[in-house]
Every structure is written in structure tokens, then in C-alpha cells.
Amino acid sequence: MNQNWHGTLIRHMLLLVTACLVMGLISGYYGWSMAVGLGLYLAWTLKQLLRMHVWLREQKPDEPPPDGYGLWGDVFDSIYHLQRRDQRVRGRLQAVIDRVQESTAALRDAVIMLDSEGNLEWWNRAAETLLGLKTPQDSGQPVTNLVRHPRFKEYFEQNNYLEPLEIPSPINDRLRVQLLITRYGNNEHLMLVRDVTRIHQLEQMRKDFVANVSHELRTPLTVICGYLETLLDNAEDVNPRWVRALQQMQQQGDRMQTLLNDLLLLAKLEATDYPSDNQPVVVSSMLQSIKNDAQALSAQHNHLITLEIDSQARLKGSEPELRSAFSNLIFNAVKYTPAEGKVHIRWWEDEYGAHMSVKDSGPGIEVKHLPRLTERFYRVDSSRASNTGGTGLGLAIAKHVLLRHRGTLDIVSAVGKGSTFTCHFSPAQVINP
Ligand code: ADP
Predict the structure, then answer these.
(1) Ligand 1 site residues, Cβ closer than 6 angstroms
(2) Which mutation among 388, 395, 419 tests ligand 1's pocket best, with the greatest number of atoms within 8 A of CB?
(3) C-alpha 146: how far from its chain's center?
(4) What is the Cβ-side half-sphere exposure of residue 116, based on CA atoms within 13 angstroms?
(5) Is 351 found in the same domain as 316?
(6) Structural domain for 292, as ranges
(7) Are 55 and 48 in contact (CB under 8 A)?
């Protein structure tokens, strides 16, 4: 193309000079002929430039450039080819965008793009049915204005999106949606929303089943345990051969009762997201009384139980729930630490909130068990655990209670070096006297 241009240019110049020389020969004024020829050429060039300028300025979409001759014809042709190539690339890109939009529109899961501030930028059709977003009115609105559930606001603002969040849909209470946020690009957010109503219903059925069975078993068990107690109270009337059997039956009956109570407590904790009684709980005196109970539990095992209170902060929440969570952790430390061992309880506060830790000098737990420890009925060593009379639900209860109090449970342990269970509560949950 470059050579073409050069050739054309040289041809034009030669033609011009020849025409000027011929004019000069006829008129006898070489200088003037040359000046007039060059002036005319300059005027023609300026006219072409002007045509191009007008075309560029007023260019209507996809209108081809004007026709031209010679060098300017080449320039206009080149622009025209560039324009065609650009149109083809744009067409291909548009086709890709159309396909992506078509496929995301067909998705049953909602896809929502939010800017770094959390304002809505783009969403697919499922977002309208699951969350009730309206096109185009809601564009640019903060997502927390449209999904108004308090847990969503908290979840969105905490900036930690490792776990998904499950809430009722803002447009239909019977619909349950699961939200998962990921960050991309320049701190923008991509939010995926799934309809999990069916899974939620199944989960609910499981919870109801466990709660109902536990509840139904309680009455017959109370009767059996009552009769066993009466029989053992009158052991002299009972054939001595049966006394040992009756004692074992009573022991197992008591275990079953604790198990049912724990199952019912878990069912109650799962029924709502937050405790209904949000009273300031004086943690220091609660820990003192749990420490006394732990000392009684230790009895002849003679553990050295110490309590360090570094804060008078109170916690917003339910007293019985927090007591049950802390007792489970502290009693576990006593149960699993051999006689004469040490248990240290600490309550303190810092810029991250308030914390309660229980450190023991017990056998410790292998790292591979730690992630599963708070699962129901998960036991590190079932023979050891059944000796302690545990139900296998203690840590599950503790975790649930903490979840309801915006807290987290942190477990650090190494075999032979003891374990430390720490409950962390966010500053929003702490009340200072
Ligand atoms: P359990 O009723 O069996 O104590 P938990 O849910 O309270 O059930 O605890 C689960 C398991 O975690 C226990 O069976 C035990 O193996 C282990 N565990 C809990 N606390 C401690 C601790 N302080 N030291 C060692 N192991 C522990």
C-alpha cells in the first residue's frame, strides 16, 4: 500500500509539473504557470481534506467515507477497509456479548454485578424473580436498600464472604435464597443467588423430626427413670442379683435424658437466628459460678482451675444460652484433662471485641480432627468420650450459641500440649459498664 501511495504521488507530481511546463511553454511565463498549477493542486488537496474532516465530524454510524481520486482516493479506501474490519470485529464481539447475556438470562440462578460501593450495575432475569429487582429503575441503587434483611446488611458489610448466607427472599417469605458474594476486578462484587427452598424444607423436616422424636421420647424415659429410682431407693426389697443391673440401667437412663435435653436444646437454637432475650449478661460473675461448678465436677481429680477476669464488659444476649456454651467448654476441659491437670479460664477485651478462652493441660487434639470437632456426635476417641459420659453435642451447642451471638469459636490444640478453646465476640455485641 505504501509503495502504491508513493507511486501515485510521484505520478501526480510529474503530471502536475508537466502540465505547468506545457502551460509555461504556451504562455511564456514558467514561474507563474508553476505557481498557478501548485495553487490549484493545493486547493484541490484542501478540498479533499475538508471532505474528510466533514465526514469524520458528522460521521453517521457505518456511513462509508466519501469517494476520492488519486492519493485521496487511496486514503479514503484505506479508511473504508479499516471501518469494515472494525465493523466485523464489533459484530463478533456483540455476538459474544449477546450469547453471554442470553445464557445468563436463561440461568435459574441470579447473577448480580455490583460496583465497589455495593450499587447495582447489572443483573439477569432470575434476579428479578428471586430478589424482586426492577429493570431499569433499580440500576445504581445500593443493594442493601433492596435486600433489606438485617443479616444481609451485616453479611455485606463485614466483607468476609467465605460462607454463603441463607435468608428468606425479599419478595416471597416462603422462598429461601442462598447468597454468595465474590469480589473481582477493582473491588467490584459478583453476587450469585440460588433458590434453596427445597433443601431448606428438607433440612427443616430433619430438624422437626429430631425435635419431635426427642420430645416424644422424653415422657416414657422419665417414667422408666422414675421407676428405676424408686426401685433403687428400696434396694433392700430387690433381689440383690438385680441391684447392679438396675444401677446400670439408671446410669444409661440418665445419659439418655442428657442426650435428649441436648438434642432439644440444639433444636431450639436452630429454630431462630437470634436469641429472643437480648439482655446484658454479666460474664464475669457467670464465669465465676461456672468455675465453682467445674471445681465440683473435678472433685477428687483435683484440677487446678484458675479464672482471670480482665474486663467487666457485658455481652448482649441470652444468659442461659451463653452459660450453656461456656459450661460445655469449661466442663470439657475438666473432663478431658487428667487428674491434677490445669484449666485456665480468661475473659478479656481488646479492639476486636471481647473474648473468653479455656486453656487446659490435657491430652490435646490432633490437627486433623479440629475442623470436624463441632459436628454433632463427632468424637476424637469414642472410647475415651463414652467414659466421660459426654453426649457428643457439647461443642455443636457451643458453636450454635456463638453463631447466634455473632461470635466465633477458635480451637488451638496440639497432641500432648493441651487445648485452648476461645470464643470471640464482635464489638457490636459488647456493652461496657
Ligand atoms: P462430648 O460430649 O463427647 O464431650 P463435645 O462435642 O463436647 O462432646 O466434644 C467433642 C469431642 O471433642 C470430644 O469427644 C473430645 O474427643 C473432644 N474434646 C472436646 N474438648 C476437649 C478438650 N478440652 N481436650 C481434649 N479433647 C476435647
Answers:
(1) 328, 332-333, 336, 360, 362-363, 365, 373, 378-381, 385, 390-396, 419
(2) 395
(3) 18
(4) 3
(5) yes
(6) 279-431
(7) no
Domains of the chain: total: 4
Query: Is 255 found in the same domain as 136?
Result: no
Residue 423 and residue 292 share a domain = yes
- Is the confidence at residue 135, as pLDDT, over 70? yes
Q: Do 221 and 115 share a structural domain?
A: no
Residue nearest to atom 16 of ligand 1 (CA): 380
Mean of per-residue pLDDT scores for the chain? 90
Q: Which range among 90-104, 121-135, 273-287, 377-391 shows the weakest confidence by mean pLDDT?
A: 377-391
Whichever domain contains 291, its CATH number is 3.30.565.10
Nearest atom of ligand 1 to the alpha carbon of 395: 6
Q: Which tens digits make up the pLDDT trace of 35-44? A: 998 899 899 8
Ligand 1: nearest atom to the Cα of 379:
14
List, in sequence order, the alpha helices (H) in 58-190: 70-106, 125-131, 143-146, 150-158
Check: CB of residue 308 under 8 Å from CB of residue 344: yes
The verdict on 243 and 357 lying in the same domain is: no
Does residue 416 sit in the same domain as residue 315? Answer: yes
Amino acid present at 157: E
Instruction: Pick the atom of ligand 1 nearest to 389's CA.
Output: 2
User: What's the CA-to-centroid distance between 343 and ligand 1, angstroms?
Assistant: 15
Order the strands of the 314-317 sheet from edge to edge.
279-282, 314-317, 430-431
Q: Are residues 95 and 160 in the same domain?
A: no
Chain segment 138-157, per-residue pLDDT in tens: 999 999 999 999 889 988 98
Which amino acid belongs to residue 374? T
At residue 55 the predicted structure's pLDDT band, cuts being 50, 70 and 90, is confident
Indicate the top mutation candidate among 256, 298, 332 to test ligand 1's pocket, ranked by most ligand atoms within 8 A of CB. 332
Provide DSSP, 154-209: HHHHH---SS-EEEE-SS-TT-EEEEEEEEETTTEEEEEEEE-HHHHHHHHHHHHH
Ligand 1 atom closest to the CA of 333, numbered from 1:
23
Nine cell digits for residue 52: 474528510
Cα angle 331, 333, 339; round to 5: 100
